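Appendix B: complex inputs.
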Amino acid sequence: GIQVEQSPPDLILQEGANSTLRCNFSDSVNNLQWFHQNPWGQLINLFYIPSGTKQNGRLSATTVATERYSLLYISSSQTTDSGVYFCAVSYTGFQKLVFGTGTRLLVSP
Amino acid sequence: GAVVSQHPSWVICKSGTSVKIECRSLDFQATTMFWYRQFPKQSLMLMATSNEGSKATYEQGVEKDKFLINHASLTLSTLTVTSAHPEDSSFYICSANIDLLTQPQHFGDGTRLSIL
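Resulting structure:
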């Protein structure tokens, strides 16, 4: 099946710093989503981005489908950005989402 | 729009009991819903695909007799953990969307299940 790897696995930042999270996938996809899982377990939908670039406030994401990777940029990080970030993909011809390994982010004041 | 509601959010029960978790699409119809499980400090793993009016499709390694899925209407899917044991303790979360191929999936808030 499709493999979805995220890097780095863990990231510690000081408030105000910028960061880039990466998601690599092993097959063609028709859906890619980025999520933030907060400490209560809720999955917050950040981006639906099977290709191209999108921005939402301090966050932006880019997916290069032909090269099978996606990037999530976080600028001017805040303590509330702490949590686990997942990318998830569904590959062409299938409907189910496969989640990546996750990046655990800790933003300290 | 595209809100998915999951209930209950937290369950604690004794070993051997059965637990039912509900997943509802509040403002859209979902012919397909998905059930995931997440163990502490791990990623989400798909358990099964719930299809309205037909049998669920289970992922390899998931016991269909242990995890009963019913999708009786276009807005409701239920997951029943039968004869639950401590190893079934986990975070269970469902998802649904309007168009599986062109729209994002929306997730419920999850159910934290603890079996004593």
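The mean pLDDT of chain A is 94.
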